[in-house]
Amino acid sequence: MSEVSWIAVDWGTTQLRAWALSGSGEVLQHGASARGMGSLAVDQFEGALLELIDGWLDAARITEVVACGMVGARQGWREAPYAEVPCAPQAMARMINPEVSDARMRVSIIPGLCQRVPADVLRGEETQIAGLLAARPDYHGLVCLPGTHSKWAEVREGQVLGFQTFMTGELFALLSGQSVLRHGMRGDPPFDLPAFEAGLRAASQRPLLGALFGLRAESLLEGLAPTAAWARLSGLLIGQELAGLAERWQGLPVCVIGDGQAAERYRHALATLNIAAQTLGAEQVTLAGLAAAHQHIRGGT
C-alpha cells in the first residue's frame, strides 16, 4: 500500500468518518464509527479518533489530520469560532489545532460559518461548498445541502454571500415518528413518488398545519396507505421549504450536494418548479473540500 500522506475527517453529531489519503489524493483506507460529537466528552475525542486511524499513523513522522464538522462546535473537541459571511467557505486563518497526546499526528479543525441577520450557523457544509468550488471556482448560484437541517447557500466569486437553514429533516422525523401522524404512516420501500408529488402540490394549496392533520384524517376516513402518507408528508415539508426560499435567490442555478433518496427528492421537487438542478455526491465534495484545506496547511495556496 502507498504511504499515507494525510488523513481527512468528517466528524458529525452522530458519526465519525475518516479517510487515509496518499500524496496524489488516492483514498487508501476508509473507516467510520458511531462515536459522533454528541456522544463524547472533551477528553474522549482523541481516543475516538485513534480507534479509527491508529493503524494509519507512522511513528517516524507527524501526519496531518484535517477535520470538519461538529468536532469544532462549542460542545466539541475544541471550538473553532465561526467566520461571518460574506466570506470564503473555509476561513483558514480561524482553523484551530486541539492539543493531542499522540506525537504521530497534528489535528486541524475547520471553522463553520455564521450569519448575523437573519441569525444562522452551519458546520461541515462549508467544506462541501469549498469542494464544489475546487472543481468549479466560477460557480455562481445556490447550493442545496439536504440533511436533518437542510442548508441553502448563495455562492458567488468564491464566497458564501448568505445562507438559510430549514429544520425539514428533523420535523419529518418528529412528525412521522412521535406525533399522532405516526399511527398512519410507514416508510417501506419503494418510495411512493406520486404521493410525494401530491404533497409538493398541497404545500402551495393549504396551510401547512391543516395539511398535516389532513394526512391523519385521510388515513382514517379514506384508507390512505401508510407508505403514501409517509411520502406525502415528505412532499409537504420539502414543498414548504422551497416556498420559503428568499425571493432574491430565485432564478439562480442550483447544485444539490447529497447522496441517496434524500438528494433525489430535492432534485425531483426542484424539477417540478422547472429548475434543473445539478447533483454531486456528498463524500466526493467533502473530500475535495478537506483536500483544499490540507493544501493550504501545506502552504500550497
Walk me through this protein's architecture.
- With about 300 residues, this protein is an alpha/beta fold.
- The chain folds into two domains: about 1-80 and about 95-110, 2-keto-3-deoxy-galactonokinase, substrate binding domain (Nucleotidyltransferase, domain 5, 2-Layer Sandwich), CATH 3.30.420.300; about 125-300, Nucleotidyltransferase, domain 5 (2-Layer Sandwich), CATH 3.30.420.310.
- It is about 35% helix and about 20% strand.
- The chain is built from eight helices and 13 strands.
- The strands form three sheets. The protein has a five-stranded mixed β-sheet, sandwiched between helices. A five-stranded mixed β-sheet has the order 11-10-9-12-13, sandwiched between helices. A three-stranded mixed β-sheet has the order 5-7-8, with no helix packed on it.
- Strand 1 and strand 2 (about 15-20) form a beta hairpin.
- Helix 3 runs antiparallel to helix 6, helix 4 (about 195-205) packs across helix 6 and helix 6 (about 225-245) packs across helix 7 (about 260-270).
- The model has no long low-confidence stretch (mean pLDDT about 95).
Defining traits:
globular, five-stranded mixed β-sheet, alpha/beta, single chain, 34% helix, 301 residues, Nucleotidyltransferase, domain 5, 2 domains
Describe the structure in brief.
By secondary structure, the chain is of the alpha/beta class. The chain has helices spanning 45-53, 125-135, 168-178, 193-203, 208-221, 226-243, 260-271, 282-297; strands at 6-11, 16-21, 27-33, 63-69, 83-84, 105-109, 113-115, 120-122, 141-145, 150-156, 159-166, 254-257, 278-280. The strands form 3 sheets. Strands 3-2-1-4-6 form a 5-stranded mixed beta sheet, with helices on both faces.
